[in-house]
Amino acid sequence: MDEEKLRAEEVEILRPEIKDLEAVFGFWRAQHELHYNLDPVYYKPNSPELDTLAREYFQKTITTDSPHILIARFQDKIVGFVTFEEKGTGSGIEAFASNLSSYEEVIDFFIEDKFRGRNVGAHLMTKAQEHCQNACLPNMKVEVAASNTGAQRFYERLGFGVKQVEMFKKI
């Protein structure tokens, strides 16, 4: 397969159907495994119980579009997905003291290895951003594992910048 960048018209971005559940689940599982290997303290290992919960979650997500979900299809093959939802900062002081009080948050994002670096991810994120604009949400947010430097570079190329740093401590 040619490793050239794919143009937007070559990659179909659309809502998945229930027949796409196993493909989406497979990508999520690969994503979760990647994150677990990067940080086994934060992420749980894959397990049959986690698989069951994830399948149920994605079945509901596909059926209800809550959170929103989009897939990337290239030549009739699903090659990635993104889930995202509208958020607000809640009822704390940040709800009225922050310029970032309403936003769209990317929850899950995964592109098949051989399609990374070929613009598929950028095309998916463009559609998510269009949704954000149509919903009159002025901001998008994505959380990236500190050890996932490749994902950080990807999001920076799309114009994302660090605004906050979350810190955790195992007790």
- Our count of helices gives 5
- The count of DSSP E runs of length 2 or more, i.e. the number of strands, is 5
Strand order of the largest sheet: 1-2-3-4-5
Rounded Rg: 16 Å
**Main sheet?**
5 strands, mixed
Terminal CA distance: 48 Å
Instruction: Name the quaternary structure.
Output: single chain
The percent range for strand residues is: 15-25%
Structural class: alpha+beta
Unreliable residue runs? none
Shape: globular
Listing every helix as H and every strand as E from the N terminus to the C terminus, the arrangement reads EHHEEHEHEH
Mean pLDDT: 91
Give the helix proportion (percent range). Answer: 25-40%
Describe this structure in words.
This protein is α+β, with helices and mostly antiparallel strands. 37% of the residues lie in helices and 20% in strands. The protein has five helices and five strands. The chain starts with 11 loop residues before the first strand and ends in a 14-residue tail after the last helix.
Produce a short descriptive summary.
The chain is α+β, with helices and mostly antiparallel strands and 171 residues long.
